[in-house]
Amino acid sequence: MGDAGSGSTSKVERTIREYGLEGLGAELEAAWTGEDGDRTSLRSLAEEFNRTVLGAAMREADGSVTRSDVESAHRALADDDVPRSETLRARRELERLGVDVDAVLGDFVSHQTIHTYLTGEREARPPEEDADRLDDRRETIERLAGRTEAVADSAVEALADAGELADRPYEVFVDVRVTCGACGADYRVGELLRRGGCACAAE
User: Quick check: 72 and 35 in contact, CB under 8 A?
Assistant: First the structure.
């Protein structure tokens, strides 16, 4: 563990250097591994990282910016539930401050990018019980799918035997799948859990 090497080219490390956020990498690692108590999720870490980047850009443009100002601007730019009019208003206000909004948004990262940075750059690993929990969830889903398949197969066979279903050699398959709302990619749920999320999130 520890700070990434000077030859690092990851987006997270480049952004940390560009915005002068020294120490942020160590904070992300400590929060994810639970070094200081409860663990923080990757999604929450990505949100905090992006909020910090936006705050650094806003303060460089106007040193009087408050944390509340940053949180409000981040919500307007990053929350899909915010009305478009509010987002446009926030963009105009930031541009009046001298913030290059498109550049800042381009420096925002996904939770998968944070995961790649922490595990690749910093060689951080979550507590072992978390890996066990993921395996437990995957096994539970696969076990339930197998049970559903068995029940459905039995029902089809019984209906065919009773003459309520055309007597044919039926085969029952239960395939639990997950579709990424961002890119439309389709995965078996076990594959998605094993790979840690959709490939489109890796930048």
Answer: no
